[in-house]
């Protein structure tokens, strides 16, 4: 199974990038997770009269060829980062790779609340017309106190947190398999 992981911000340092890279290592014997950056995507502008940027089409093609997507979003002011919103706008404008694509939402934050507001908003965006992703319900992985839960090597250290991530990911794997078997039957 091939998954694309999207680092949902354009910051040089990101606990969400670290979490996504941890997942790629932790689940390497089960799936391939390719982490992709959005920092090179330009801000979306509908009136752009030129061609769709190559960086957008590259990401769209990667998503289109994957079995599913994991989006790691931080939370800024109870919302997703502008760079992530712009990325989704470009993708829904240019190629629609999220249509019927299974998506898992994860997030890491420094505080106690995790990324609950951002994840709720991202779910609404991904369910909107023109995007039409299939977002896994009820398995939102929110890493609170990321600075304390990720060590210098980028590994989760709390066994309960690892176990919960394992449960969420197992549900997502099953969700992807069911979704993809439905596509074959169509």
Automatic annotation (TrEMBL):
The name of this protein is Putative fumarate reductase
Per UniProt, what is one GO molecular function of this protein? FMN binding
Organism of derivation: Secundilactobacillus oryzae JCM 18671
> Where would I find the NADPH-dependent FMN reductase-like domain in this sequence?
1-147
Q: How is this protein annotated for GO cellular component? A: cytosol
């Amino acid at each position: 199974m091939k998954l694309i992981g999207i680092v949902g911000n354009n910051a040089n340092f990101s606990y969400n990038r670290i979490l996504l890279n941890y997942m790629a290592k932790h689940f390497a014997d089960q799936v391939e997770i390719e982490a992709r950056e959005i920092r090179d995507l330009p801000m979306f502008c509908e009136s752009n009269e030129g061609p769709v940027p190559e960086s957008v089409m590259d990401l769209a093609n990667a998503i289109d060829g994957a079995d599913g997507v994991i989006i790691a979003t931080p939370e800024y002011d109870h919302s997703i980062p502008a760079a992530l919103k712009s990325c989704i706008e470009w993708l829904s404008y240019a190629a629609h790779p999220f249509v019927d694509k299974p998506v898992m939402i994860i997030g890491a934050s420094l505080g106690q609340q995790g990324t609950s507001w951002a994840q709720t908003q991202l779910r609404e965006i991904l369910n909107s017309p023109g995007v039409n992703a299939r977002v896994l319900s009820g398995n939102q992985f929110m890493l609170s106190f990321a600075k304390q839960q990720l060590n210098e090597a980028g590994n989760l250290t709390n066994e309960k947190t690892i176990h919960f991530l394992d449960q969420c990911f197992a549900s997502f794997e099953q969700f992807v398999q069911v979704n993809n078997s439905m596509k074959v039957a169509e």
